[in-house]
Amino acid sequence: MADQTTVLADVRRGMIPAHVYNDREIFELEKERVFSRAWVFVGHESEIAQPGDYVVRRVLEDSFILTRDEQGEVRAHFNMCLHRGMQVCRAEVGNASHFRCPYHGWSYRNDGRIVGLPFHKDAYGGEAGFQRKGQRLLPAPSLATYNGMIFLSMDPDAPPLEEFLGDFRFYLDYYTKQSASGIELRGPQRWRVKANWKIGAENFAGDMYHTPQTHTSVVEIGLFREPKAEKRKDGATYWAGAGGGTTYKLPDGDLDERLRYVGYPQEMVDRMKEQFTDDQLKVIGDDGFMISAASIYPNLSFVHNWPRVGESDDVLPFISIRQWQPISEDETEVLSWFAVDAEAPEEFKALSYKAYLMCFGSTGMFEQDDVENWVSLTNTAAGSMARRLLLNSRMGILEDDEPVVPPLGPDAFHGPGEARTGYSEHNQRALLNRWADDLEKPPVQAATLTVGGPGAGAQDAAGRTSPSANDAELPGGAVAQA
Amino acid sequence: MSTDLPQAPPSAAVTAITDPHPVPAGNPTGDDAQTLSEQSVLGRHASRVQRVGASLPFDDPRHLQAHHWLVDEAWLLDAQAYEDWLELITEDVHYLMPVRVTTALGAGYDTARGMAHFDEDKYSLSRRVARFLTEHAWTEDPPSRLRHHLSNVRTFATDDADHLVVESATLLFRNRGDVREGSFISAGREDLLRLVDGHWKLARRVILVDDSVMRMQNLAIFL
């Protein structure tokens, strides 16, 4: 594999070798060093609300059954039968107390424990030949939740999720905790685009600069009143912990007026005032900034916008959570969910969903033009000329690396991290710097596991990620409540 | 002659669109919902007129009119003549394309709960059309080459002489640029056509796409 030292050094000074958006060797490194350790979003607890509910989600090529067991515990089982490696669950959503492998009929409870092994005595000589007791589907190496959002890491020694997210949690709450009940997640719509996964993550992290150009049409048709050029640069971008995002500057008004301006009914405003911290409320009420797009490294993004959804001038806010799931260096599967506060009035939920469909997702009028650009970019990045071109990603800093605009002081922006108004690529650089850090680190050494091997059952040398049935011996088996 | 032909019973896949449908738990529209249009989040306003009986003979004038309507519509959609297309649509239209999901055979549902690709009324369709008419809808500039291949058309009477239910299969081929591979969408459709001032108009459409994961970069198209 080629030495990427120069590539990473260029990225760190804000000069992006264009080929990183379509390069097989880079993609292999990303698989080995980014997605082998990062916390990756796989779903929300509301998608598996009842015991037995499951969805099947992937991290790269690895399929996991995300399920709520009969005790109400959220679990992620590697979707491979311990016997011959068949995919155990071939539906993508459903409710089941057990999963039975269609190949030879091994079956597992929804907590992962094996319960059925046909002809155990005849074929294996019973427990003496194969210890059925203690066997279970392989749990995800690490699993944790924040505000009901379920994340999985392929690294059994991943730092705690809260530590990984860091101060971005402050902003994540705006999207996922508008009331004590949190969000309901619906979807996802899934579709594949011939674009590199990093482009969407960078765009949502901080690209306010594209809005006036790319999304001209949605302003022209009266769908969205905000993204005029002069408006967008008055917003702030922030980076905190594992992520960063963009905001819009709201018109003058107090907290209630500003939340109603984007379309929240007073009862939802009241719940936010109970739920959010003083500083979270001050970002809106005192500082006048409303969250819009955001990304958590590596590949999870958010958007919060407030379009018109009917003939009246009223606007309705919506939230979408989306994942840029890497398929290859030039293909990404987009998973786009609609999120809404669980306590919101039903009428609000319906209109917010309508706002989502009109703006984002597979049919969304914002998203349509974004994807067109990203596909073109990826296609153009494949050739040899792209290897000669360093894209300038230094917007917002001068030649001596001093910022064009100083960060906002604590009185002007009450959120954590570093925030500033105006167009810049600080956040895109922050995202790619983390990426460069990961690409530089040696890969995670994963332990191998033996199923029913002589003596040990299914244990690795360190006893980690063991498919033992005993929860106490199962780090990562049950959800750690972060 | 065709009137003597035996009528094929509706297949399971086709009846799934309109016939009573198990309502998944968590369905936001309530317990009474039966059809996909009723189960959808935004279909409350939609007409509930349903088919009656077996499909009409192929030489029945109602079938000929419905088939003619669909062929004319396909040519409008290929040409992206979307303003003309909107003229063919009633004010109370419900235009629905559920998200298909892979579920176990006995699950009783194969569409996502509370989520669709399209769940549209006349207003939202008109905004989509208006956007294509701006000079800044980049995803269709340069425009795609589109071909809606239409087949398997059959028509059903309803209790109301001014309404017909028409089913069809559509295969959309979309190609962009010069060397990019084209992409396909295969779908079954069930339409409710209504006679308005002597012209058939689309009052309800349910599109059952055959992909769970769409293989098209966006749905800046209509089916």
UniProtKB/TrEMBL annotation, chain A:
GO MF term set: 2 iron, 2 sulfur cluster binding; dioxygenase activity; iron ion binding; monooxygenase activity; oxidoreductase activity, acting on paired donors, with incorporation or reduction of molecular oxygen
InterPro entries: ARHD_Rieske_2Fe_2S (IPR015881), RHO_NdoB-like_C (IPR043266), Rieske_2Fe-2S (IPR017941), Rieske_2Fe-2S_sf (IPR036922), Rieske_N (IPR043257), Ring_hydroxy_dOase_asu_C_dom (IPR015879), Rng_hydr_dOase-A (IPR001663)
PROSITE patterns documented for this protein: RIESKE, RING_HYDROXYL_ALPHA
All copies of domain Rieske, residue ranges: 39-152
Annotated spans, Disordered: 443-482
Record keyword rRNA processing present: no
UniProtKB keywords: 2Fe-2S, Aromatic hydrocarbons catabolism, Dioxygenase, Iron, Iron-sulfur, Metal-binding, NAD, Oxidoreductase
Pfam families to which the protein is assigned, alphabetical: Rieske, Ring_hydroxyl_A
Family of this protein: Belongs to the bacterial ring-hydroxylating dioxygenase alpha subunit family.
Protein name: Phthalate 3,4-dioxygenase, alpha subunit
Organism phylogeny: Bacteria, Bacillati, Actinomycetota, Actinomycetes, Geodermatophilales
TrEMBL record, chain B:
A molecular function GO annotation: dioxygenase activity
Disordered: annotated segments: 1-33
Entry keywords, A to Z: Dioxygenase, Oxidoreductase
Pfam family name, one: Ring_hydroxyl_B
UniProt record similarity statement: Belongs to the bacterial ring-hydroxylating dioxygenase beta subunit family.
GO process annotations (BP): 3-phenylpropionate catabolic process
Entry-linked InterPro entries: NTF2-like_dom_sf, Rng_hydr_dOase-bsu
Protein name: Phthalate 3,4-dioxygenase, beta subunit
Organism of derivation: Klenkia soli
